[in-house]
Design a protein that fits this description.
alpha+beta, homodimer, Arc Repressor Mutant, subunit A, DNA-binding, four-stranded antiparallel beta sheet, Jelly Rolls, globular, about 230 residues
DNA sequence: CCCTCGGATTGATGATTATCAATTCGAGGC
DNA sequence: GCCTCGAATTGATAATCATCAATCCGAGGG
């Protein structure tokens, strides 16, 4: 593991509250592995063997029903994923695949569950993490049910801008076809949605997006009012 | 509280693992209140004062963005709701209103958080509950993103039938307009979806639905394959 | 530097869903 | 038993979104 990586992982909400000794047990029992791009890490329906922590790279979580499939989340470092499946020891509901070459910390699921049950602080952190994730999904579902495609894109851009405290510039991390799937639309309609937003304060140059007029975009996209 | 109610609440996943003394503290610190139909219990954005347990009646959880709003869940007794907001002490993301006259146990949020932090079994139960709720929402979001309206209705009927172990008869608990909103469509399209399903093994008589041909409906609706 | 290839864009068309309007249906009140 | 009112249904039309097809564009390889 490179210098500075352990601290970064230790700073994750999940591991932050553990005492140092337990954290060492996590690291000792885990594997840090490098994966090439476009590799499937696990598939929906499989039994969860590891909690995954993306240390470096980019990962897509997707799900399918019948023959259609959809991107559920784009995981950026440093973040853990599929905590719910590990906690409940129930099959993954999503398929994970690397988008770029990625380094991932694999923490054995049984170890995670064991430590959670030994360490109240960790259990509490897990509980809070799950509750926050739940709220995120509530918002995502409301988004999908109440907004049409260009509005969803507008809100996505507003959220991205808020997350990275910078000015108005947003760099898309992944291909637009992927963003389209994440937002529940086709690549063609994503293009059209971008051109709609160009009338509402958004400037697009390839994968560099600028929110030129925050007011106008907000008026169009009706972003969530409830904070956090 | 009527006879037999406490045991029923005590049987909830959340309270099942608590020791008797703590459970008594919950009941002692809570209020069982009766609400008339169509009453708003709380609104999205408010600070969560109580964990709610629906003892009797029917409650709708809805959310909105801009001027559109949508039904997120129809709560049947005996179930607790809005656990995530209480755990995280963050504003409600949904609005709750009674559909019928309802009796609801109101457990002060601060008390819930206090007991969770004192009682590891309760914390663990909460964690599992949240993880399961998370999985439920993942499925709901996939459903919304990958299936069209008649398929969503078909899957809803299949799930309802599975939940109540009976034969093929399903009784809709709420108005169809509400079901439409839950499934992310208009009442008009719900009607049309029902008539589509009549060609795929479903018989409709008012709010009595019969799945006459489970095979045919499954073939049409492509239900989830992953169990639990 | 040019070529190639896959993603992105644009246009045309079709499917799905929403909206508007008009009945029909059914439960509750008189 | 009839009336009334809101929900449910049905039909017609419009908006949104997907699909198909044809370029356009840009990064990587020769």
């Amino acid at each position: 593991m490179r210098t500075g990586e352990k601290p970064e992982i230790a700073r994750l909400p999940l591991f932050r509250e553990m005492d140092e000794a337990k954290r060492e047990r996590v690291f000792a029992g885990s594997f840090l592995q490098v994966f090439p791009p476009q590799l499937t890490l696990f598939e929906a329906g499989q039994h969860p063997d590891f909690l995954h922590v993306l240390v470096d790279g980019l990962v897509e979580l997707s799900a399918s029903s019948g023959d259609r499939d959809t991107t559920m989340r784009i995981v950026e470092p440093v973040t853990s994923f599929i905590l719910a499946a590990v906690v409940n020891d129930l099959p993954y509901l999503m398929t994970a695949r690397t988008l770029e070459a990625s380094r991932i910390l694999l923490v054995p699921a049984a170890l995670v569950r064991e430590l959670i049950n030994q360490d109240t602080a960790l259990m509490q952190a897990t509980m809070h993490e799950l509750a926050l994730a739940y709220r995120g999904l509530v918002r995502a579902l409301v988004d999908m049910k109440t907004r049409q495609s260009a509005e969803r894109l507008g809100n996505y851009l507003l959220r991205q801008q808020a997350r990275r405290q910078e000015g108005g510039l947003i760099q898309l991390q992944a291909e637009k076809r992927l963003l389209a799937s994440l937002l529940g639309m086709t690549p063609e309609n994503l293009s059209r949605a971008f051109s709609v937003l160009s009338n509402h304060g958004v400037r697009v140059e390839g994968s560099n997006i600028t929110i030129a007029d925050h007011e106008a975009l907000s008026a169009f996209a009706h972003p969530d009012k409830i904070p956090v």
